[in-house]
């Protein structure tokens, strides 16, 4: 027969309950609080990551706007430099055209003067040529 001792059964029950009470206070509660703290930390980290995403998106937006403004400034500066260079080239071209026109006018004047001198020289030698031609015809 199975012999059950009530005192031993009661002692086992008391030891079991006291063991549960001790383990609850020394092991289960600290373990549960640690797990709760870890879950809270994970939630906080996820919230920080979410806020970091917002911050990163905000910074990306700022960076894109800065890059866009820089491109616009570069384009405006490039157009201004090109316009200034064209204006400078046009002014140099105009001054060179004026200089060449003045040189051409001076050349035309010297050419006309040379033509007049040559004409007067030839006209002064016309009697000599006439005499030479008459001499040649007389020899024929």
Automatic annotation (TrEMBL):
<dbReference type="GO" id="GO:0046961">
    <property type="term" value="F:proton-transporting ATPase activity, rotational mechanism"/>
</dbReference>
<dbReference type="GO" id="GO:0015986">
    <property type="term" value="P:proton motive force-driven ATP synthesis"/>
</dbReference>
<dbReference type="InterPro" id="IPR002146">
    <property type="entry name" value="ATP_synth_b/b'su_bac/chlpt"/>
</dbReference>
<keyword id="KW-0138">CF(0)</keyword>
<keyword id="KW-1133">Transmembrane helix</keyword>
<keyword id="KW-0066">ATP synthesis</keyword>
<dbReference type="Pfam" id="PF00430">
    <property type="entry name" value="ATP-synt_B"/>
</dbReference>
<keyword id="KW-0812">Transmembrane</keyword>
<keyword id="KW-0375">Hydrogen ion transport</keyword>
<keyword id="KW-0406">Ion transport</keyword>
<comment type="similarity">
    <text>Belongs to the ATPase B chain family.</text>
</comment>
<dbReference type="GO" id="GO:0045259">
    <property type="term" value="C:proton-transporting ATP synthase complex"/>
</dbReference>
<dbReference type="InterPro" id="IPR050059">
    <property type="entry name" value="ATP_synthase_B_chain"/>
</dbReference>
<comment type="function">
    <text>F(1)F(0) ATP synthase produces ATP from ADP in the presence of a proton or sodium gradient. F-type ATPases consist of two structural domains, F(1) containing the extramembraneous catalytic core and F(0) containing the membrane proton channel, linked together by a central stalk and a peripheral stalk. During catalysis, ATP synthesis in the catalytic domain of F(1) is coupled via a rotary mechanism of the central stalk subunits to proton translocation.</text>
</comment>
<protein>
    <submittedName>
        <fullName>H+transporting two-sector ATPase B/B' subunit</fullName>
    </submittedName>
</protein>
<comment type="function">
    <text>Component of the F(0) channel, it forms part of the peripheral stalk, linking F(1) to F(0). The b'-subunit is a diverged and duplicated form of b found in plants and photosynthetic bacteria.</text>
</comment>
<keyword id="KW-0472">Membrane</keyword>
<feature type="transmembrane region" description="Helical">
    <location>
        <begin position="6"/>
        <end position="28"/>
    </location>
</feature>
<dbReference type="GO" id="GO:0012505">
    <property type="term" value="C:endomembrane system"/>
</dbReference>
<keyword id="KW-0813">Transport</keyword>
